[in-house]
Amino acid sequence: MGNFEKQYKIMIVDDHPATRKLMQDILQEYTVLSAANGRDALALLAENPDTALVLLDIIMPQMNGYEVCRKIKNNPATSDIPVIFLTIMAEEQDESLGFMAGVNDYITKPICRLRLLARVKNQLQIRRQRELLNHKNAELQKALDEIKVLNGILPICSFCKRICSDNGEWQKIESYICQHSEANFSHGVCPDCLEKHYPEGKD
Predict the structure, then answer these.
(1) Which one, 15, 81, 107, 195, has the greatest CB density within 10 A?
(2) Which tops the pLDDT comparison, 93 or 16?
(3) In the CATH hierarchy, which fold is given to the domain comprising 3-135?
(4) Per the confidence metrics, is the pTM higher than 0.70?
């Protein structure tokens, strides 16, 4: 791992300092944020909305992991951040509560280095693929918007035939179409203009 991992912020939320230290050591190739309770975690997330992943303990004082996860998922600014629960509980009912809260995965304690790294890498890969897909969709939408402009009503000067662009600039029709499509121009003279401008060429 290297600089690619450093671009990702991972938040560890656990009320046990020893657990936080262990996980920080395992995830040292990433940019790691740390919080000892749910309230501090939510405040830290508000300051770091680009956090890529949250590793969240379930059993904590004041605000448990289920409540913290629900708040993360119900906030539009953080709803896309994947959450992995850290838990000693493996009962099916507990997992059901977690998925209802919006959790993406589980890691059971005691923390296993290889399991932690594998689960983190998996969630970051899913996030990366989603980001690439969103980027492609944005490019596609931009292309569709440009096509809609060309298919719509264009303000054109009745005299010089210039077109008014979206920013209010009047452009030659050739320049405008070249910028908003893949069309290229080759110039010639139509028969009417040939007759008008070069009447001697009729004979």
Answers:
(1) 81
(2) 16
(3) Rossmann fold (3.40.50)
(4) no
* CA-based nearest residue to 127, from 55, 73, 52, 72: 52
Q: Can you give the residue ranges of every domain in the chain? A: 3-135, 152-201
Of the listed ranges 39-48, 85-94, 187-196, the one predicted with least confidence: 85-94
- Report how far apart the first and last C-alpha atoms of the chain are (Å, whole number): 79
Please state, as a whole number, how many other Cβ atoms lie within 10 Å of the Cβ of residue 85: 25
What is the average pLDDT across 89-103? Answer: 74
CA distances from 163 to 34, 124, 178, 186, 203 (A): 56, 47, 12, 19, 37
What pLDDT is attached to residue 163? 85
**Whose CA is closest to 50, among 16, 9, 83?**
9
Residues 6+ apart with CB under 8 A from 52: 8, 9, 10, 81, 82, 124, 127
> Rounded to whole angstroms, how far apart are CA atoms 157 and 176?
13
Question: 79: pLDDT confidence band, cut at 50, 70 and 90?
Answer: very high
Question: For residues 164 and 173, what is the distance between their CA atoms, to the nearest angstrom?
Answer: 9
The two tokens of residue 106 are: 């589980």
Token code pair at residue 80: 């896309």
DSSP state of 27: T
Q: Please give the mean pLDDT across all residues of the chain.
A: 85
Tokens 């600089």 identify what position? Answer: 3
